[in-house]
C-alpha cells in the first residue's frame, strides 16, 4: 500500500514538474504564463495517472511502435510545387480520378467510437460515379488543412475519395512539405489569413486550372477558403461549385476560452502572442523541452484535438500528435497573431449560392461549434452538422460521419456544376 502511494506521489510530482517547465517558459509575461501553466497542469493530471502504471521506457516504445505500424498519412499523389507571391514554394499533390484507389494504407483500425474511416467506401464510389456522370465537367475537390497540421490530416477523406474524384491536397506555407514563408523569414510581411487566401489561389491556378471546384477547409484552412472569397469573388462565382467549412470560424476568435478559467481568458489572449514569440526566439531550447516532456505534450494534444479522447484509437491519437509536433514552435508563434485579426463574416456571401457544408464537433475547444452555427446562419442553404462528443480534429476522430457528409456535398456540387453549364449553354 505504501509503495503504491509513493509511486502515485512520484507520478504526480513528475507531471507537475513538466507543467511547471512550460509555465516558467512564459513567466516573464505574467498572467499569460500562468494561463499556459493552467493548460499544462490540466493535461498533467491525466499524465500522472498513466505514469502510475506505465514506465517511461514502455511509453516511449509504445509511441515508436505506433509510429512504425500506423498507416496514417502514407497516401501520396502526383507531386507539384507552385511559387507564391513572395517566392515561397508551396507543395501540393494531385490524386486523379481513375487513379489508384484506396488500399490498406488508407484503412484505419476497427471501430472504437468514431468509425474506421473506410466504412461504405464501395458505396461512396458508386454514388460519386453516378453523380459525376460521363458528360459532367471534371470536378476537383481541394483540401486546405489547419494550423499546425499538414495535408496528411485529411488521410481518411483522401482514402474515401481516392480513385473516384480528382482531389488536390496542399501544405500551407511553413507547414508540411511546403517551404518556410520567405516574407516571414526576412521580416517583410507577417502571416495573415489574406496571405493564405492568395496562397490558395496560386495552388488552384496551378493544380486546378479549369473545371468546377469544391473547396474543403478545416480550421485555418476554412479561414483560408473565406479569404479566397474575400479577395477573388469573381473567381469563386465562376469556378466554385461547393464548399465545406469544417471546425472553423469567420471571426471573433479573441473571445474563445480554450477551456481556461474565466479570469484568465482575457489575459491569455492579450499576452499569449508575446509568450509564443519569446518561445519562438528560443526554438531550440523549446523543442528540446517538448521532447523531454513528450507525455505532457501528448496529453495537451489529446485534450485540444479530440472531444472524447478515451474513445479514439491510439494509433489515430498518435498520428494527430505527430502532425502537431512536426510544426516548429517559431512557426506556431509566427501564425498565432493572424487569428486575432481574422474576420471574414462579410466574405461568406460569396458562397451563399453554392451547396455548402458547415460541420463541427460539439466539444471543440479551439473553434467552438457556436462559430459554425454563426457561419450557417449566414449561409441559409448550408447543411449544418454538429457531431456530439467530437473535438477539433473531427475528420480524424469521426471520419465516417465526415466522409458521408463530404460525399453528399460532392453529389450536390455535381448537380450545381451541370446546371451552371446548361445555363451558360
From TrEMBL:
Recorded superkingdom: Bacteria
Transmembrane segments: 29-49
Segments of this protein annotated with the region Disordered: 101-122
Keyword list, A-Z: Hydrolase, Membrane, Oxidoreductase, Peroxidase, Transmembrane, Transmembrane helix
Domain AB hydrolase-1: 141-404
GO molecular function list: hydrolase activity
Entries under Pfam families matching the protein: Abhydrolase_6 (PF12697)
Protein name: Alpha/beta fold hydrolase
Organism the protein comes from: Streptomyces celluloflavus
Taxonomic lineage of the native organism: Bacteria, Bacillati, Actinomycetota, Actinomycetes, Kitasatosporales
Amino acid at each position: 500500500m505504501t509503495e503504491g502511494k509513493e509511486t502515485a506521489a512520484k507520478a504526480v510530482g513528475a507531471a507537475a514538474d513538466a507543467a511547471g517547465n512550460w509555465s516558467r517558459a512564459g513567466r516573464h509575461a505574467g498572467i499569460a504564463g500562468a494561463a499556459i501553466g493552467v493548460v499544462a497542469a490540466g493535461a498533467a493530471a491525466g499524465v500522472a495517472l498513466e505514469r502510475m502504471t506505465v514506465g517511461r521506457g514502455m511509453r516511449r516504445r509504445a509511441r515508436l511502435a505506433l509510429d512504425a505500424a500506423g498507416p496514417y498519412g502514407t497516401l501520396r499523389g502526383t507531386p507539384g510545387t507552385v511559387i507564391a507571391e513572395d517566392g515561397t514554394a508551396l507543395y501540393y499533390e494531385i490524386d486523379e480520378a481513375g487513379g489508384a484507389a484506396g488500399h490498406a494504407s488508407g484503412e484505419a483500425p476497427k471501430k472504437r467510437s468514431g468509425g474506421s474511416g473506410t466504412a461504405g467506401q464501395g458505396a461512396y464510389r458508386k454514388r460519386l460515379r453516378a453523380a459525376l456522370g460521363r458528360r459532367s465537367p471534371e470536378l476537383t475537390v481541394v483540401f486546405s488543412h489547419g494550423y499546425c497540421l499538414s495535408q496528411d490530416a485529411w488521410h481518411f477523406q483522401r482514402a474515401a475519395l481516392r480513385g473516384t474524384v480528382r482531389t488536390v491536397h496542399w501544405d500551407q506555407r511553413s507547414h508540411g512539405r511546403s517551404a518556410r514563408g520567405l516574407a516571414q523569414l526576412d521580416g517583410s510581411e507577417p502571416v495573415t489569413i489574406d496571405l493564405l487566401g492568395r496562397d490558395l489561389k496560386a495552388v488552384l491556378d496551378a493544380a486546378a486550372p479549369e473545371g468546377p471546384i469544391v473547396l474543403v477547409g478545416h480550421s485555418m484552412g476554412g479561414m483560408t477558403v473565406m479569404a479566397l472569397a474575400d479577395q477573388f469573388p469573381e473567381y469563386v462565382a465562376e469556378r466554385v461549385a461547393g464548399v465545406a467549412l469544417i471546425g472553423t470560424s469567420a471571426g471573433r476568435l479573441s473571445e474563445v476560452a480554450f477551456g481556461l478559467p474565466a479570469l484568465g481568458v482575457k489575459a491569455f489572449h492579450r499576452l499569449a502572442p508575446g509568450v509564443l514569440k519569446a518561445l519562438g526566439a528560443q526554438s531550440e531550447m523549446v523543442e528540446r523541452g517538448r521532447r523531454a516532456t513528450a507525455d505532457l505534450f501528448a496529453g495537451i494534444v489529446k485534450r485540444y484535438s479530440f472531444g472524447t479522447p478515451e474513445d479514439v484509437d491510439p494509433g489515430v491519437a498518435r498520428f494527430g500528435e505527430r502532425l502537431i509536433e512536426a510544426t516548429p514552435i517559431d512557426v506556431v508563434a509566427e501564425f498565432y497573431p493572424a487569428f486575432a485579426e481574422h474576420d471574414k463574416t462579410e466574405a461568406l456571401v460569396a458562397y451563399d449560392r453554392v451547396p455548402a457544408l458547415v460541420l463541427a464537433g460539439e466539444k471543440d475547444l479551439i473553434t467552438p461549434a457556436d462559430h459554425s452555427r454563426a457561419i450557417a446562419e449566414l449561409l441559409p442553404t448550408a447543411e449544418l452538422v454538429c457531431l456530439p462528443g467530437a473535438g477539433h480534429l473531427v475528420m480524424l476522430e469521426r471520419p465516417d460521419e465526415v466522409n458521408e457528409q463530404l460525399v453528399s456535398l460532392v453529389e450536390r456540387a455535381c448537380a450545381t456544376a451541370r446546371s451552371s453549364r446548361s445555363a451558360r449553354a
